[in-house]
Design brief:
Layout (H helix, E strand, L loop, with lengths): L2 E5 L2 E3 L5 E8 L8 E6 L6 E6 L6 E3 L7 E6 L4 E6 L8 E7 L22 E2 L3 E5 L2
Parallel strand pairs: 2-11
Antiparallel strand pairs: 1-3, 3-8, 4-5, 4-9, 5-6, 7-8, 9-10, 9-11
């Protein structure tokens, strides 16, 4: 059964770092555009970062630009989100997502991360809490 599994969340102090993992089983991640989203309590899910399947280009929301790095490890069929200089406002549940049935809807490019509503394949999420 194809699925995405996130891991790596936890409690970290402001200014700290975490690396989230998005591991796929049942399909090859490198064939798909992969996005990371987050959802803070009481807020809508928002796009954080995306990596393109075509050339590995990466894109970030303004709020995380320069602090987060998305990368892909094809050998391990995993996409990572390295998060540095974390702030309390980064707190939330982080999800990775794509769309295997209609891969094109998951495309990302400059100033565009696909809205969460168009993607069908999601992990269960991993909680990140940034607090002193």
């Amino acid at each position: 059964q194809a699925q995405l599994v996130e891991s790596g969340g936890g409690l970290v102090q402001p200014g700290g770092s975490l690396r989230l993992s998005c591991a796929a089983s049942g399909f090859s991640l490198n064939s798909y555009h992969i996005s990371w989203f987050r959802q803070a309590p009481g807020k809508q899910r928002e796009g954080v970062s995306c990596i393109s399947s075509s050339d590995g280009s990466t894109y970030y929301a303004d709020s995380v630009e320069g602090r987060f790095t998305i990368s892909r490890d094809n050998d391990n069929n995993t996409v990572y989100l390295q998060m540095n200089s974390l702030k309390p406002e980064d707190t939330g549940v982080y999800y990775c997502a794509t769309d295997r049935r209609v891969p094109g809807v998951a495309v990302c490019y400059r100033n565009y991360i696909p809205p969460p509503g168009v993607l069908d394949d999601w992990g269960q999420g991993t909680l990140v809490t940034v607090s002193s």
